[in-house]
Amino acid sequence: MRRALVACLAAACVAATASGATSKAAPPGIHLIRHVVVIMQENRSFDSYFGTYPGADGIPRNVCVPVPRSSRCERPYHDTSNRNAGGPHDHIDAIRDINGGKMNGFVRQASAGRRLACTVHVDAPACSLAPKAPDVMGYHDWHEIPNYWSYARHFVLQDHMFQPDLSWSLPAHLYMVSGWSAKCTKKGDPMSCHAAVQAPGSPPGEPQNTTGATPDYAWTDLTYLLHKAHVSWRYYVAKGNQPDCADSAMFCAPVPQNAKTPGIWNPLPYFDTVRIDRQLGNVAPLQDFFRAARRGSLPAVSWITPAQAVSEHPPGLVTAGQAYVTSLVDAVMRSKDWSSTAIFLSWDDWGGFYDHVVPPHVDGQGYGLRVPGLVISPYARRGFIDHQILSHDAYLKFIEDDFLGGARIDPKTDGRPDPRPDVRENAPILGNLVKDFDFSQKPRPPLILPLHPPFS
User: Fold this and answer.
1) What is the pLDDT of residue 89?
2) pLDDT tens, 409-455?
3) Is there a contact between 335 and 298 (Cβ–Cβ < 8 Å)?
4) In whole angstroms, what is the distance from residue 421 CA to residue 13 CA?
5) What is the pLDDT of residue 22?
6) Which of 20, 36, 99, 106 is nearest to 66 (CA)?
7) Residue 22's CB: how many other CB atoms inside 10 A?
8) Residues whose CB falls within 8 Å of the CB of residue 57, separated by 6 or more in sequence, listed in order
9) Is the dihedral of CA 346, 348, 351, 355 positive or negative?
10) Judging by DSSP bridges, how do beta strands 35-41 and 301-305 pair with one another?
């Protein structure tokens, strides 16, 4: 173990030199983590999954959200349904859900979103499957999501994790790999990119792409620094249909996806850096992840994105998503790589579901609403609730501190300038995931859970 740690420390020093970084040294012990796995699910707020978790910043008493065209209001309730509808979740919906800090627009937006979506997509299966009344005030607990609650009890639950952008899935996934969501006006020119909280360049065939042009993400993403420092990475894509709707509506017709189809949940092939660095092969099918876990050959950095059926995005079944995530976690835990792995599990946006916490303001694009966050690792603190303010930018920060000597996706230092308004990893308000670990403890054994626990 000591030799591995020394080797990893040396690799970090090489990475820092390659990236031109002069950052302070990484926190002690972080280099015991040699594999980071980011599992990104879909469309759940923190309150919808952990609002009643003991000790967490959960649903307050006496909450009652107005029902449109009525004098009534709706209180949070225990939702035992396996299938949800949620609400619309684009930039304007986020603003209206938050409603100036009152956090009371959720039922109104869900009602309007259903009327609009099912008028446009009248044959969408979800329109007939969705409940008659909005279910955005419903929450699940250990009865419906026992594995997620088990991970929280045995590892780390983050109760102030916010989506990085005040919008929907495409911007969220761009932030996940690059710390920014933008639209570029000149192909291949990073300086032509400008911030786009709602409408970055969308893939051909999507409603927001009115020209049919292939998007060009010319700004810098994390893979540029990883490749430059010889740090291995993969972006694993589950085969099936895309989660969510391309126009961020509630319901729509299915769109196929796989590792060879760039899109909203597979954006890296549209990044100039990935193509120029000849890294397109690192966008891989999900079965490659399971194969690497079995062989004990996980890359240093893995991102995993789901297909609709297992994404938990309405109308996908909660149980199907939990079983899929459990299979990913179990695969790592059964691997010889478990002893040096950190799994970061979160959900890309709030999906229209109620949350009571007003998002902090970082810049013109975020933060967005609160989402669940879990850290699963042999070095994770046991049963710890992390109250730090976090966003998915913290994943970038941890990866950069661990593998890149603290280098950042920073136009001033990364050798590839772009006009991003700030370096999100350096935001003063952003917490540090290192606090979720105890690197002095003996690596903890796996917690293998059943894929299909009882649903009550």
Assistant:
1) 92
2) 999 999 999 999 999 999 999 999 999 999 999 999 999 999 999 87
3) yes
4) 28
5) 39
6) 106
7) 11
8) 159, 160, 357, 387
9) positive
10) parallel
Locate tokens 């029902």: which residue?
67
Please name the residue that has the structure tokens 């079995």. Answer: 294
Residues of the chain with pLDDT under 50: 1-23
Amino acid found at 386:
D
| Model pLDDT, residue 249 | 57
